[in-house]
Amino acid sequence: MRIPYTGSLPAPNIIPRNANTVRGAIAALVKFLTAPPSPSLQHGIAAGDPSSTVILSGAGISVASGLADYRGTNGTYRVNKTYRPIYYHEFLANHEARKRYWARSFLGWTNLHKARPNTAHHAVRNLGDLGLVRSVVTQNVDSFHPVAHPNLPTLELHGYLRALTCVSCHNDLPREAFQEALSRLNPAWAAFLVEAIASGALDTENPDERRAKGMKTNPDGDVDLPGAPYTTFRYPACPHCLASPPVSGHGTQAIVEVDEEGAWKPTSTAGILKPAVVMFGESIAKEVKEAAEQSIDGSGRLLVLGTSLATYSAWRLAKRAHERGMPIGILNLGGVRGEDAFFQKLPMGQTGEAGVRVELGTDKVLPGLVEQLERSGLVSKVDNPNSTQEEQANSRVFRDMLS
């Protein structure tokens, strides 16, 4: 099993040609979002609004919030060549692997927790308020979309980091409470985290820059903390399973044991908490896949923001949109998986209504796009700032899909 497309993808062809500047990109995207439904759009697959847009977003939209992307110039896979994510089967089977994962996660959580949605996320909200965007499907696990636009339905395709879920009882635990437990169980790591935050060592993904700021790391990028190696890191058990151990499918009661301070013990047979995200090697839940497909089928065009579509779960949605005859717009720095196929049969002389490809940052383009749309008089805000009960219900379903 390998991580897909960790290298550079081929550079894109800008469509239309004048979309190589912010001004040109905005003009093309105005045409894209306000054009009549495409005559090639296949109807009857699902009920929806053929004049509306569904957004598919990725890590690139959150870079302006201070988070790293994966495959960009300063992305995790580019600046940290030794980076290797943990796989789902490893996490479930290996207590030592979980120690290492949670130690790394303990250090990394602070940056995510203090980060906030940026102007691009708020522009997506405004596009929803203008009645142009029907829903958002995001690969991101940072929760920025539902925070920035709670009334615009968001499907978090790969889950979210704001909570953990128990692999035994499937109850959730807020990440803040879990972080506090990790700090209590690992005082040496907690003290180190305070020092690392003060030095700014956690503000970069680059191992060399971290070492320059005083964070000692091993060749594989792991933190070298004297007197507190990864093997000593401890994590709590699921409180629900600890209070009431679950019964297995064979009718036997599981064992959940903790040490005197509340750390999970390897003699346990249940009570393992995992992040509420889809890990490498883990399957996306069937209902989430179906909800993502319905989001595509219920709209008339697809706008891809800040993603190379390297993961199959995202690429297949763009492929589905293309096969339905939906116009596709892409706003992403760097190449995108299989993107040439999306733009092969565009009409000669089209200026954005049938397809757009822009290689600029989402935070550089989307706020200006909203301003231009509002000035143009082509659209106006939808007169339901609190959203309908149906939209609120849909939003809750999307947000809670993996909880």
From TrEMBL:
The keyword tRNA-binding does not apply. Keywords: Metal-binding, NAD, Transferase, Zinc. It comes from the Eukaryota. The active site is at 158 (proton acceptor). Residues 36-376 form the Deacetylase sirtuin-type domain. Residues 205-225, 377-403 are annotated as: Disordered. Residues 383-395 have a biased composition (Polar residues). Signal peptide: none annotated. GO terms for molecular function: metal ion binding; NAD+ binding; transferase activity. Zn(2+) binds at residues 166, 169, 238, 241. It holds the Pfam family SIR2. InterPro entries: DHS-like_NAD/FAD-binding_dom, Sirtuin, Sirtuin_cat_small_dom_sf, Ssirtuin_cat_dom. SUPFAM superfamilies: DHS-like NAD/FAD-binding domain. Belongs to the sirtuin family. Class I subfamily. This is Sir2 family transcriptional regulator. It comes from Diplocarpon coronariae.
